C-alpha cells in the first residue's frame, strides 16, 4: 500500500531532476549537430544558429524561435533587395520576374509569421508550412536569368530556411 506514494515521489523526483538537467544545459552541441546534419551544409547551419548569442544557452523552444527569427530576417532582407531590383530595372521582362519574386517573398514572410505564432504557443506539430520556403525561394530564382546577381542571396535564404525547417522538425518530435 505504502508503495504507491513512495513510487510516485521517486518518479516525481527523477522527472524534476531530468527537467532541471535538460533546462540548465540548454541545447548541447550534439543536438545542434544532429539538427544540422539534416541540412545541405552542416557547418553553415551551425554557424547560422550560433550567430545568435542566445543559442549557446537556449532550450529547444528558444532555439525554435531563434531559427524562425533568423529566417524572417533573411526573408525581409531578400524582400528589400528584390524590391530594389524590381524598381531599378528598366527591362520589362526582368521587372516582371523580380516582381514575381517580391510576391513569393510576401508568401514566405506570411508563412514565417504564422510559424512564429505557433512556435510561441509551442504548437510545433502544427508548423507544417516551413517546408514550402525552399520551393518558393527556388521558384523565384529559377524565373531569373542564370547570371542573375541574386544567386547568393537566394542561397542564403535556402540555407537559413533549411536550418529552421530542421530545427522545428526536431523540436516537434
Ligand atoms: C518588402 O520590401 C519593401 C521595400 O523595402 C517594403 O516596402 C515592403 O513592405 C516589404 N514587404 C514585406 C512583406 O515586408
Ligand atoms: C537600386 O538603386 C538605388 C538608387 O540608385 C541604389 O542605391 C541601390 O543599391 C539599387 N539596388 C539594387 C539592388 O540594385
Automatic annotation (TrEMBL):
UniProt keyword annotations, A-Z: Disulfide bond, Signal
Annotated Pectinesterase inhibitor domain residues: 27-167
GO MF annotations in UniProt: pectinesterase inhibitor activity
UniProt-listed Pfam families: PMEI
Family matches, as CDD domains: PMEI
Highest rank taxon of the organism: Eukaryota
Signal peptide (residue range): 1-26
NCBIfam families, per database record: PME_inhib
Family: Belongs to the PMEI family.
Name of protein: Pectinesterase inhibitor domain-containing protein
Amino acid at each position: 500500500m505504502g508503495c504507491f506514494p513512495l513510487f510516485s515521489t521517486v518518479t516525481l523526483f527523477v522527472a524534476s531532476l531530468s527537467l532541471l538537467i535538460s533546462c540548465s544545459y540548454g541545447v548541447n552541441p550534439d543536438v545542434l549537430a544532429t539538427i544540422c546534419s539534416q541540412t545541405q551544409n552542416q557547418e553553415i547551419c551551425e554557424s547560422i544558429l550560433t550567430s545568435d548569442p542566445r543559442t549557446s544557452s537556449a532550450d529547444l523552444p528558444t532555439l525554435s524561435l531563434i531559427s524562425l527569427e533568423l529566417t524572417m530576417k533573411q526573408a525581409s532582407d531578400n524582400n528589400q533587395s528584390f524590391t530594389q531590383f524590381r524598381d531599378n530595372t528598366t527591362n520589362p521582362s526582368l521587372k516582371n520576374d523580380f516582381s514575381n519574386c517580391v510576391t513569393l517573398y510576401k508568401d514566405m514572410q506570411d508563412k514565417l509569421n504564422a510559424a512564429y505564432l505557433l512556435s510561441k504557443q509551442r504548437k510545433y506539430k502544427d508548423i507544417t508550412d516551413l517546408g514550402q520556403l525552399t520551393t518558393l525561394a527556388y521558384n523565384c530564382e529559377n524565373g531569373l536569368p542564370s547570371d542573375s546577381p541574386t544567386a547568393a542571396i537566394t542561397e542564403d535564404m535556402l540555407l537559413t530556411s533549411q536550418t529552421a525547417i530542421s530545427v522545428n522538425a526536431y523540436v516537434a518530435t
